[in-house]
Design a protein that fits this description.
5-stranded mixed sheet; 4-stranded antiparallel sheet; 13 strands; rod-shaped; disordered N terminus
């Protein structure tokens, strides 16, 4: 496949670069955030180790003569206001709990009494914490040991989730910016399309009028009528082309057409202009139906697809147009199938991109224009239904029937 690198390849490269840069930024951001979480977790473990040491010293102090500053130890234990802690003995009995959001309020008169509901809650927490690394063994003496279990503080929990929240916000922001840029780009493309089409129609108007006048002069001069007929046909063709361009950019007038007749009329011009080595077959719908069409634009679509198919077959092969109106659906299907060189599956959507072409000459705008006419003006769909490299391609058009 041949692509105009200045239009398509460059855009694809920039998209790839944008994605790579975004992924690198996300990776760096998550790494830094993860480092902060690990550092804070290490600090909290150090605080819990100090808390465990204070508990050990306090348990070892039997009276004030031991030289232990009991008030200082209590201040360390009571100073923990944000890290949930469970202290259990060797039998697994909960001796102390702090900073847990208990289901029932603690009785201020008996703060060390644990209600059955709170006890069940703390036991569940204990079983969960036994499967984590947030655990410190406190060896009171040779025969006595206690176990300290703790949860991450609220700050650490929030910080652990914060990177993902920021990442989500960043992705939403990038998506908004991306789609905003796409919308702006499409708006600019629309202006270019409309401007180019209107200017083309305008530029064709003057020579067409001049040619019509020359044909009348030649007819009055007695030139062979067969020549005059051919000239009139070509002038009419140019007028049709100019009319098509003039309709781009404005809402075309839609009229009721029967689909079999509309397809036949669309292919009439191409029948006498394609190679005799191309067999063109039209399988009309058994049950004809009405479709709202702008016939000049629809004819442009069919001619474009037919010409592309003939080019893909290099002037030799079979071109089949199948019309299916169905009975259980409101959709009309038109399949244009050729026996040409086919399209790789990865390019099924790319073929409608401005700049895509398989020819050495041309701007690669034909299928883009076809897609615009079918989808934006007629409210239908067009896509590559099937294709195999070296065997051919089927384009499908979907249009709505009239009620």
């Amino acid at each position: 496949m041949i692509l105009h690198s200045s239009i398509y390849d460059t855009r694809r490269i920039w998209k790839t670069v944008f994605i790579i840069v975004a992924l690198v930024m996300v990776g760096v951001f998550l790494y830094i955030s993860d480092s902060l979480v690990r550092d804070l977790a290490a600090q909290e473990r150090e605080r819990m180790q100090i808390w465990a040491n204070a508990t050990k010293e306090l348990a070892s102090a039997t009276d004030g003569s031991s030289g232990t500053d009991v008030d200082f130890l209590f201040s360390i234990i009571e100073g923990n206001h944000n890290i949930p802690v469970l202290l259990v003995d060797g039998d697994g009995t909960i001796l102390l709990h702090r900073n847990f959001d208990l289901p029932e309020p603690v009785d201020s008169l008996s703060p060390y009494m644990i209600s059955p509901r709170n006890l069940a809650y703390l036991e569940e927490k204990l079983q969960h914490l036994k499967g984590t690394e947030n655990h410190i063994t406190i060896q009171i003496d040779d025969a006595t040991a206690q176990e300290l279990y703790y949860e991450d503080s609220t700050v650490l929990k929030r910080l652990a989730y914060y990177p993902y929240i920021q990442l989500a916000v960043l992705l939403i922001f990038v998506a908004i910016v991306y789609f905003a840029l796409i919308s702006i780009k499409k708006a600019e493309q629309n202006k270019v399309w409309v401007g180019l089409s209107k200017e083309t129609a305008h530029q064709l108007g003057t020579p067409i009028s001049s040619m019509m006048a020359w044909v009348e002069m030649l007819e009055a001069s007695g030139v062979d009528k067969e020549i005059i007929t051919d000239l009139n046909a070509d002038v009419h063709r140019l007028s049709v082309i100019a009319d098509r361009f003039s309709k781009i950019g404005s809402r075309p007038e839609m009229e009721l057409n029967f689909i079999n007749e509309a397809v036949d009329e669309s292919l009439q011009y191409m029948r006498s202009r394609i190679s005799s080595r191309v067999k063109l077959t039209v399988n009309r719908a058994t049950n004809d139906c009405g479709v709202m069409l702008c016939l000049p634009l629809f004819e442009w679509v069919m001619e474009n697809l037919t010409k592309n198919a003939v080019d893909a077959m290099q002037g030799e092969g079979r071109l089949t147009v199948d019309i299916d109106t169905g009975t259980s659906t409101r959709i009309v299907y038109i399949d244009i199938t050729d026996t040409g060189k086919g399209i790789a599956r990865k390019n099924f959507k790319t073929v409608f991109t401005p700049g895509y072409t398989t020819k050495n000459r041309g701007w690669g705008l034909g299928l883009t224009l076809v897609k615009r006419i079918i989808e934006e003006y007629h409210g239908g769909r067009i896509y590559v239904k099937d294709s195999e490299v070296g065997h051919g391609t089927t384009f499908r058009i979907e249009l709505l029937k009239t009620k």
